[in-house]
Amino acid sequence: MWQWLVYLVVDRFSGLWSRNDRLWVFGARGGSGFVDNAKYLYLWVAANEPSVRPVWLSTDDDVVDALQQQGYEAYHAHSIRGRLLTLRAGVVFVTQGLRDLHMGSTAGATLVQLWHGLPLKTIAWDAEWPDQPWPVRRCHAYMADEIDLVTAPSTAAIEPLASGLGVAPDRFVVTGYPRADAFAEEIDGARLTVDESLLDRIESQAADGAVVFYLPTYREDGKSFVDAFDTAAVGELLEERGAHLYIKAHPDEPVTAVADHPRVHWLPASVDPYLVLPHADVLVTDYSSVFFDFLAADRPIVFFAYDRSAYTAARGFYFDYESVTPGPIATDVDELGTALAEALEATAGGTDPYATARRRLRERFCPVPPGAASKRVSEAVSRLVSGDPESRRHRSNCSSDRSTAELIEF
User: Fold this and answer.
1) Is the pLDDT of residue 390 over 70?
2) Segment (H or E) for 401
3) CA distances from residue 376 to 50, 162, 316, 371 in whole angstroms, order as listed
4) What is the 3 state secondary structure string of 339-378?
5) pLDDT tens-digit series, residues 205-227
6) CB distance 368 to 376 below 8 Å
7) For residue 149, what is the enclosing H or E element?
8) Do the Cβ atoms of 376 and 41 come closer than 8 Å?
9) What is the distance of C-alpha 32 from the center of its chain?
10) What is the enclosing helix (H) or strand (E) of 164?
11) Which residue, 10, 16, 126, 192, has fewest beta-carbon neighbours within 10 Å?
């Protein structure tokens, strides 16, 4: 709420100075990491757009230092320099919300919401936001109406994203997600801030045998996926197949006490999954949007939905679960073992009964080929900022229905 009030004040006086449309600032995950769509777009712009000055802003000094040491421009988001650059930037890119940067300083800039995934489960206004106090809801509604552009992986993604984020559909552009470009090629600078020895080990194991990644979604009820996972049983199956499994928990769910097995490895929650997913022969997940991106790899996916009924009742989905899950749905560890064995067999040249389903879903939800998204986002933003500034700021005639409803409620 405090940051929103600062935003309103800055916005009122933003006409007193000019913004540079070729100065672009980037932030992600509340400023805490060098990750997600903002990361991959930032690296692409730094390498391919000489007329643009890209600046990464973070609240993590280690991230800032790592980028600066490699010649990238980066500063602490809440430092004087970070705030001044945000005040002068013509374009601001975020992946969660404007608190990825110093929120108040973004007022008056062209605001681009890259977001962080095509949602299967409901988000924001369709999930937890309606239960928040009125002032918080009003803040969310106001800020949603400030967003100038939202990137989407497909036209099929616009309706759920518009509904969940409260942003008018006419502000979306289908570009694909920059993070999916990692499936096309290794991207210079992407390994910064990551343990190189860990990546080297994964690459070595991928060269020698199958590698499986398990990325479960975050559960707000406090229950952990660890309680439903049998490390020993899965580890034995992997040993028989000569495979390795890497598990990465959601950043909001640190895992500290888990069973160990030589074939089961636990990745730090802070690791960028798009550095390791290109090496995966099989992906295991549940309700995470990551599987939509993984369709680009065209490799088997196993869904471990052990709490599907409870999760559906508590959260709900935008799509019928079975119609958008191109792989076996396991409800317990025994079924997970069977599904995983079949998936590993498919990667070794066996029958892959879900190949057609993956292709159809990829055409529907992720039609932009990996390697093209960052360029498409950059071009879309350049077109936007080259137009009439008044046409992209404070477009009250395009205000979302939800914002209007909030005003009526007051």
Assistant:
1) no
2) helix 401-409
3) 16, 20, 32, 10
4) HHHHHHHHHCCCCCCCHHHHHHHHHHHCCCCCCCHHHHHH
5) 999 999 999 999 888 776 778 88
6) yes
7) strand 149-152
8) no
9) 14
10) helix 158-165
11) 16
